[in-house]
């Protein structure tokens, strides 16, 4: 299937522990994480400076996801040049790009936050690897949906394009606007 609209995603209900809950759509923005809220929600888990590369909103996130992601970072996360530097922080050498993974169990979100995203291919590769890992965890057949570290996998699918756009190269030349390649592509479709 393709990407579903937010209206459709809100209409979908999941049975988790026998309780019907609406599936919240994933949110992806290039603004400070504290600005990423849905109606009635409190501030998203955020400390320090940075912009969200993506914020995936799941129906549930288990607290052990943080531990799993720490081990994933220690293992090299599968992306050349990236290595874990702290709890859920990583740094790319030689570019010096730093990024943080924010897991909010209460809100059911996983965010990737970086000090600079636009025009950053290494960050784009890292966000893709993280999204691939989250998708694998959310869709594994080895555990029931309620036992998975995060669920559903559609939460990941709905933020992939936005994560790519957040890291897309900035326009070059005399144009000083923060327009990305993705922005220009969208304009070309009109």
Low-confidence stretches: 1-47
Radius of gyration: 17 Å
The SS-based structural class is alpha+beta
Mean pLDDT: 74
Largest sheet: 5 strands, antiparallel
Helix content: 25-40%
Shape: globular
Distance between the termini: 24 Å
How do the SSEs run, as a string of H and E? HEEEEHEEEEHEHHH
Strands, total number: 9
Strand order across the biggest sheet? 3-8-7-6-5
How many helices? 6
Beta-strand percentage range: 15-25%
Plain-language structure description:
This protein has helices at residues 6-11, 64-74, 121-139, 154-157, 160-167, 181-189; strands spanning 13-16, 19-22, 51-57, 60-61, 82-84, 89-92, 98-104, 109-114, 150-151. It has 190 residues and is an alpha+beta fold. Strands 3-8-7-6-5 form a 5-stranded antiparallel sheet. Strands 1-2 form a two-stranded antiparallel ribbon. It has a two-stranded antiparallel ribbon with strand order 4-9. A hairpin with a 4-residue loop joins β5 and β6 (89-92). α3 (121-139) packs antiparallel against α5 (160-167). It is globular, with a radius of gyration of 17 Å.
List keywords for this structure.
single chain, globular, disordered N terminus, 190 residues, two-stranded antiparallel ribbon
Provide a brief overview of the structure.
With 190 residues, this protein is an alpha+beta fold. The chain contains six helices and nine strands; from the N terminus they run αββββαββββαβααα. It is 30% helix and 21% strand.
């Amino acid at each position: 299937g393709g990407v579903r609209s937010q209206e459709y995603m809100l209409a979908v209900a999941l049975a988790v522990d026998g309780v019907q809950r609406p599936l919240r759509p994933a949110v992806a923005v290039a603004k400070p994480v504290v600005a990423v809220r849905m109606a009635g929600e409190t501030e998203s888990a955020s400390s320090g400076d940075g912009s969200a590369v993506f914020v995936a909103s799941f129906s549930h996130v288990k607290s052990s996801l943080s531990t799993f992601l720490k081990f994933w970072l220690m293992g090299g996360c599968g992306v050349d040049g990236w290595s874990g530097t702290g709890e859920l922080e990583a740094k790319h050498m030689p570019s010096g790009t730093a990024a943080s993974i924010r897991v909010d169990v209460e809100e059911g979100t996983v965010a990737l936050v970086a000090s600079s995203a636009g025009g950053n291919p290494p960050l784009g590769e890292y966000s893709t690897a993280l999204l691939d890992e989250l998708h694998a965890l959310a869709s594994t057949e080895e555990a029931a949906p309620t036992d998975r570290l995060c669920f559903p996998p559609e939460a990941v699918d709905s933020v992939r394009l936005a994560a790519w756009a957040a890291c897309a190269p900035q326009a070059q030349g005399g144009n000083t606007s923060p327009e990305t390649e993705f922005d220009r592509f969208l304009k070309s479709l009109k």
